[in-house]
Amino acid sequence: MNVTVNQKNIDLPDNATVADLVVQMQAKPPFAVAVNLQFVPKTRYAQHALAAGDAVEVIAPVTGG
């Protein structure tokens, strides 16, 4: 299936979860994930199934003032 991650198209296996995506991206903590503009808690990554066409944002914190 195809999802958009940080405005780039990514192919994932059918039934992929947020956890699968994070592993594929090799995302380094800390970061937050939103699917279709809805925050997904880290405790739900393995249960949150993705669907074709989902828009995912993986967001790293920015420090400064």
Description:
The protein has 65 residues and is α+β, with helices and mostly antiparallel strands. The protein has 1 helix and 5 strands. It has a 5-stranded mixed sheet with strand order 2-1-5-3-4, with no helix packed on it. A hairpin with a 2-residue loop joins strand 3 and strand 4. The longest helix has 8 residues. The N and C termini lie far apart (40 Å).
The CATH class designation is Alpha Beta
Count of DSSP helices?
1
Order of helices and strands: EEHEEE
The name of the CATH architecture is Roll
For the terminal residues, how far apart are their CA atoms?
40 Å
Q: Output the CATH topology.
A: Ubiquitin-like (UB roll)
Percentage of residues assigned to helices: 10-25%
What Rg, in angstroms, do the CA atoms define? 12 Å
The largest beta-sheet arranges its strands as 2-1-5-3-4
The count of DSSP E runs of length 2 or more, i.e. the number of strands, is 5
Could you state the CATH homologous superfamily?
Beta-grasp domain
Report the principal-axis shape: globular
Average pLDDT level: 96
Sheet having the most strands: 5 strands, mixed
Strand residue content: 25-35%
Quickly count the domains.
Answer: 1
Structural class: alpha+beta
Short recap of the structure:
The protein is an alpha+beta fold. The chain has one helix at 18-25, and strands at 2-5, 8-11, 32-35, 38-40, 55-59. The chain has a single domain (2-59), classed as Roll (Ubiquitin-like (UB roll)), CATH 3.10.20.
